[in-house]
C-alpha cells in the first residue's frame, strides 16, 4: 500500500459524500503518481499533487466553514501541516534535490487512510446530515479483498 510499489484506490476509502469521495480518489492517484515518478518526472508529479492538495484542502475548508463544522480548526490545522511538508519538499526539488520525494509520497500514503477514517469521515457524515438529514450510505465492493491486498496477504486475494 504505502511502499514504492504503489498506492491504489480501494472502496474502503469511500465515505458516502460523493464530492469528497471523488476528491479523495484524485488524491490517491496523485500520491501514486508521485510514488512511481523518477527524478525527471518528480517535479511535475509534485506540482500536480500541490495543485490538487490546494483545491482539496480548500474545498474541505470551505465546506467546514460554511456548515460551521465543530472540529474545523483541528482539521484545517492538519491540512496546513501536510501542505507545509509538501511545500518544503517542493523547495528542495526546485534546488535539484529529489531525495525526499518518495519518502514524502510514502508518508502521505501512510497518513491518508487514518485521516480519511477519522477526520474526513466525520466531515462526510456532517455534510450528508446537513444536506439530507441522515447518515451517508456507503456501498463498498470487495473491501475484504482490497484489505488483503493492502496488507500484502497473498492467501486472501480473490481468485483471478
TrEMBL record:
Signal sequence, start to end: none
Residues covered by the Hemerythrin-like domain: 17-125
Source organism, top-level taxon: Bacteria
CDD domains noted in UniProt: Hemerythrin
InterPro entries, per the entry: Hemerythrin, Hemerythrin-like, Hemerythrin-like_sf, Hemerythrin_metal-bd
Entry keywords, A to Z: Iron, Metal-binding
Keyword set includes Disulfide bond: no
PANTHER family referenced in this protein's UniProt entry, alphabetically: BACTERIOHEMERYTHRIN
Family membership: Belongs to the hemerythrin family.
Protein name per its UniProtKB record: Hemerythrin
